[in-house]
Write a structure and sequence with these properties.
The chain is an alpha/beta fold and about 280 residues long. It folds into two domains: about 160 residues, 3-Layer(aba) Sandwich (Rossmann fold); about 100 residues, Putative methyltransferase TM0872, insert domain (DNA polymerase, domain 1, Orthogonal Bundle), CATH 1.10.150. Helix content is about 45%, strand content about 15%. It has twelve helices and seven strands. Strands 3-2-1-4-5-7-6 form a seven-stranded mixed sheet, with helices on both faces. Helix 6 crosses helix 7. The protein is globular and about 60 Å long.
């Protein structure tokens, strides 16, 4: 990538990826960092301030990448990077309400401009639709039983916290919180995806990328579950067949044992990279 290139970090988070890339860039280069978490944008600003290149940070969903770049008068870029994982600071943020390992308000809106919370979904959605949502986005084969237990419990009192919901799922599956994989993992994933419309937003990012990349530019997407990875894989294959992309990772890059030992949350990461032709 040229030292005066333009990079879009579509999920700037703590700024770690942008900082590593930015150290190799000169003063004519530009990094555009986007994130739906306003707190993440503020943290990234401090992290990236020492870089020589120009840094533009935007509180925006990456589904709006084309509109945001147009607003900055940027027509083409050399790299689009997206890390679709949730960072440790977000898991631990009680205001976000993402974690089943601590009792938090059942929110899950990473972007607080969104209206519907996870509590709204579990308390207002009919049983069949709730089961379908947990199966579709969480891929949990026990989705109908989980939905039935949720509906039964909410009749007694509204489900307002992550702790309440985690206990209900454990009860539905007759499993302990000490299970190797927490029994509420898939239900929480499903609700987070639904609240933040994550898959539709990813589709919009993937659809916008070919028109934004310079020739020989790169798109790199790091996913953490099969629904995301499947979307990226199919998009890259379709664009490769159309002569738009060259796929550089025939199989996704995955973390080493050492990396997993250092960071357990990285164990499901898959990185796919393609180059614009």
């Amino acid at each position: 990538m040229p030292s005066d290139g333009v990079i879009v970090d579509a999920t700037v988070g703590q700024g770690g990826h942008s900082f590593l890339l930015g150290k190799a860039l000169g003063p004519e280069a530009v990094i555009v960092g986007m994130d739906i978490d306003r707190n993440a944008v503020q943290r990234a600003q401090a992290k990236l301030s020492p870089l020589a290149c120009k840094v533009i940070l935007l509180h925006s969903n990456f589904s709006q990448i084309r509109e945001q770049l147009d607003h900055q008068s940027i027509k083409k870029v050399d790299l689009i990077l997206a890390d679709l994982g949730i960072c440790s600071a977000q898991w631990e943020d009680a205001d976000l309400g993402l974690s089943f390992r601590a009792n938090m308000p059942l929110d899950m809106r990473i972007d607080k401009r969104l209206r519907r919370t996870a509590a709204d979904i579990v308390n207002e959605t009919d049983e069949k639709s709730l089961a379908d949502l947990i199966y579709r986005f969480g891929q949990d084969r026990a989705s109908r039983r989980i939905a039935r237990f949720i509906v039964q419990e909410r009749r007694a009192e509204p489900i307002r916290t992550t702790g309440q919901l985690a206990e209900i799922v454990c009860k539905a599956l007759r499993k302990s919180r000490r299970s190797r994989i927490h029994p509420a993992t898939r239900t929480f994933q499903a609700l987070r995806i639904a609240v933040n419309d994550e898959l539709e937003n990813l589709k919009k990012l993937l659809a916008s990328a070919p028109g934004l990349l310079n020739k020989s530019g790169y798109i790199a997407i790091m996913s953490f579950h099969s629904l995301e990875d499947g979307l990226v894989k199919r998009d890259f294959i379709q664009n490769a067949k159309a002569g738009i992309y060259k796929i550089l990772t025939k199989k996704p890059l995955v973390p080493t044992r050492e990396e997993i030992t250092e960071n357990r949350r990285a164990r499901s990461a898959k990185l796919r990279i393609a180059q614009k032709q």
